[in-house]
What does this fold into?
Amino acid sequence: MTEALHLDNLSKTFPVGKPLFGPPKFTVKAVRPVTLTVETGETLGIVGESGCGKSTLARMLVGLIPPTTGTIRIEGKAFDNADPAAFGKSIQYVFQDPISSLNPRKTIRQIIDAPLKRLHGMGKADRAQRISEIFAAVNLREDFLTRYPHEFSGGQAQRIGIARALAANARILILDEPVSALDVSVQAQVLNLLAKLKREFGLTYLFISHDLAVVEAVSTRVAVLYFGAVVEIGEAEAIFSRPRHPYTRLLADSAPVVGRPLTAPEGRETELPDPLNPPPGCSFAARCPRATDLCRRVEPELTDKGDHQLAACHHPLDP
Amino acid sequence: MRLFLKLLARNRLALAGAIVLSGVILLVLLTPLLPLSAPNVTNTADRFVRPFSPGHLLGTDHLGRDLLSRLLWGTRLSLAVGFSAALIAATIGAAIGIVAGYFGGRTDNLIMRGVDMLMAFPYILLALAIVAALGPGLMNALIAVAAVNVPFFARNIRGITVGIAHKEFVDAAKLSGMGHTRIILSEILPNVLPVIVIAMSTTVGWMILETAGLSFLGLGSQPPQADLGSMLGEARAALISAPHTSVVPGVMILIIVMSINLLGDGVRDALDPRLRSGALSRPMAATLVDRAEVPEKRTDGILSLDDLETQFHVGDRIFRAVNGVSLSVVPGECLGIIGESGSGKSVTALSVMGLVASPPGVITAGAVRYKGRDLIGMRYPALRRLRGDRIAYIFQDPQATLHPLYRVGDQLAEAIRCHHRISKSEAHDRVLELLKSVRIPNPESRARSFPHEMSGGMRQRVGIAMALANDPDVIIADEPTTALDVTVQAQILSLLDDLRRDRGLAIIFITHDFGVVAQLCDRVAVMYAGRIVEQGPTPEILANPAHPYTKRLIACVPELGGGRRELAAIPGLPPSVDDLPPGCAFAPRCRKKQTSCERGEIALKPQNGRAVRCLYPEWRPS
Amino acid sequence: MGSYILKRLFSAIPVLLGITIIVFAIMALIPGDPATAILGSYATPENVEKLNRDLGLDKPAVARYFIWLGNMLTGDFGQSFALNRPVIDEVLERFNATLVLAGTAFVLCCFLGILAGVISASRQYGFADKAITFVVLLGISIPSFFLGMMMILLFAVNLRWLPVSGMYAIYGGGDLWDLLKHLVMPAAALAVVATGVIARLSRSAMLEVLRQDFIRTARAKGVSERRVIWGHALRAAMVSIIPVLGIQAGFVLSGAVYIEIVFQWPGVGRMLVDAILKRDILLVQGGVVFVAACYVLFNIMVDVAQSLLDPRIKT
It folds into this structure.
């Protein structure tokens, strides 16, 4: 296997209350140094709750946010978005909100045309040909091309967004919560389409979601993010059934499941740590039933706990 | 564009403005061709001739010049200067605003500080300073008026641009290989343009007033040339002896500016999509009711809905959001209403207490009975006394549903004090008790917090505390955990479950999540396109769904522990409720569809505590 | 709170400096020899020499700016050659009169504007709404100086209820009652436009707020409609109304220039127009800087009021 995407110590710190000149007053670490590899042809799922930094991470990968530290390698080459035309051909992004990711004042044809024209410099006839191929691939009718975005439902708009990403002909797609704005009956339509496209075109996905069940259903491997850092990463089949990090278990136990009696897995009324003033040691310590003094002092490293499963925990759970 | 003109023409006031304005413009365009005396020829023998005199329809001024002629030439000048100033200010201001808003960061910061600096002047000081430097004259007045309006445009357009520049389609354009210039021209500008047009159409009138003002002060057009402002300025000396010389140009300014403002408002309304959809209308205190008859009481329970119909009337389209829903709950019971977006589940919940926004909502049929009293059509004061006292709501997004400017404790106290006369200290004690009962730590200090200082989970606990404030009999929870993370959702659900068991509450729980229904609700009603398609005890429905929609919807829900797999999907989309097919609304998406399904109304058939609206159910209860 | 006020006052310093730079730059646009240009028809050799000494007009522009700024910081705004008295004395005296006029008009337009806007919004599309909308439209379309002239014709000339112009009667005036009689018409004429703008804005701000979820929450709690409108909704709407009040204060101050001319009110606006026509440049410079500085301070007060109302603004 070859690596499609490699992140080395990638982090993002946002300034808060920055004056015109000089250093900011506070900083918020949205993403703490993350090192990850996405193999070619796999789907790496990223799960986490709101504010865990998963969208920030994704946007750094496509150059929409510059990272504070660290480097990104895409298919072996160092990240370089100086030339937008060359960069867009290597990696693409599918957005969370399908409607707002389409310019309301452009027709669908104009929207899909942009990457073909700008990235590939195709002529008019070639573009028309390629658009019909893509539309066939995402099951959209060609008479949609003359319409405007507001005429579409969320599921259709998301397929148009996917079509635009395909038009760039990139081999890596970052999918940022691609189905969370959709109803459950439509969500499966889009997920199945994504699976089909992956097989047909040999794509690599980074799939971001807050829905554990969805991530498990589509991913090869899953990384769990908490408070801007990867706390656990492992095979999708194993990570939720045999979590090693207590946070992963808390997540898995909190998802409502038909037939499981209602209990709050967490008795105490806990809160996320204050991002302006992060605690020393493990950021999950305050919510963790297994926390010791060590956890509150020393931040645990992400280490292999066996079976290709890595967790950042001083006192991992038994498999 | 056609739609825009149509909307504009439909607005009668705007149309009147447009007609008057085009009349004035036509008149001044034709002025050089009209048989008028020269505007600047003085004739001191004919000073202050009254209006309607022969040869001088509007009379003459202090130098005996024909007022009609001067009026038309002056109007020409005023209009030309006003429109030019607006165009110049809009172009420069919009360019500055777009650049600042799009690039953001330091560029934005520096530009906007400069703009703020200019706005720190009362505008006329800046205009006066410019005229003082350049010297009086119409051209200089134009420059001054345009210059002082640039910051207004820049600030306005920047605000809009910032909003658009952060939209995802701009990010998508970047990834499509577009450069900054192209993004500004093809992505940003088309979306900002309506705002520029609105800003211009609503400020042109103002700019005409301003240039007239400078001329009035003697700083604009210089004699003998006169625009409307300087005519008024010259006439002021003779205000008492010959008022018509003042009235004529003054009324003309009024007519022009008023017609421009009417037209400008019309343009704004036609271009603003929110106004177009009627979203800017104010919801009334209670939903409108327009029903022919009150249906018989058919169900028992502390709260029961009989054949409730709620519609949205938008233009000439009628959306049947709730289409004959009957439900009931008994004390201590939790009834779930499940459905996808647009199924009418939330509208059903809001209809109970008349909280559906009206306009456009109207309750057109049915009854909602609380302990036998019909709430639909109840007089407002009586309804208000029940709201929050006997029947309380918990809403979806606790960020938006709490008042951002009141302390949490005060909002809770208000919920009690609008139903019970109790002292402040009593209310305070009760608030602390409530906060404790929803397991909020440090209630004393939390009561003094503002909503924005709390996390989503804490805010939703406040929302629940507010619902509990008067020990209600029924709580209607409208997707109370949808905006929350799973770990927080688990806490909130278990809290609700405990409260219901401890207090014998009846709960109607609206959700789109089968997992949540399974854990919390005793019975469940499944809604599709405004109707209940299936109803019954939760475990039975989950184990043996009878309606094909229910069965396939359950199959779509991914469950943790299933591993990598193909997920089930329902092809197609739910129908729009303003254009429902005859018969079963699900038929177009249903694998078991027969011709009989699409023929006529299908009844909700009850059987053994369950009910299903299907001719060919998946499973029949025995 | 105190620290917030201090911080805002501190942040006003660059704005005030910016204002002096802008005014200075505009005045530098005047063509020709500065001393002769500034003095205009008062350019006697003695005056030119005195001005060159005071303002260092033979020096480069930057140096001139700092001399001018330094003089102003010590309270020396220069000398009005047309009036033959220090600029600051004249400005202070005139500004006092403007403050009485503009202050009254401002209080009037805030009160009436918000009242009209709230009533209009809470009766959307009803008779009151339509009537208010029409009157407001008329108000923002009529030039205030024309309105003032018509008021003089009606109330002073025809009905003889009120004095034609001035701030006090020339003989036997000077008490508060006399001032009020003189104040009614100009203050009303001045307030009309701003009232209209504030009413429109309050209406749309109220409509925006009334659609919010927290209003539905208040109604679901059983809060009475009167409290929903005048309590919950108005309070939230004030967050977007208050900044506009600050801007409108500038418009009232600006409109005062016309009104002062029409009603012969001895204010700073009339002084500025006279000064421009007489090319009394130092008086213009000083007057503009002084009034702009007062306006900046007023806007700081607006910001403070805003932060008192809205806890989300970090203090």
User: Anything to note?
Assistant: The beta strands of chain C are 79-80, 85-86. The mean pLDDT of chain C is 86. Chain C touches chain A through one residue (CB under 8 Å). Residues 250 and 295 of chain C are 7 Å apart (CA to CA).
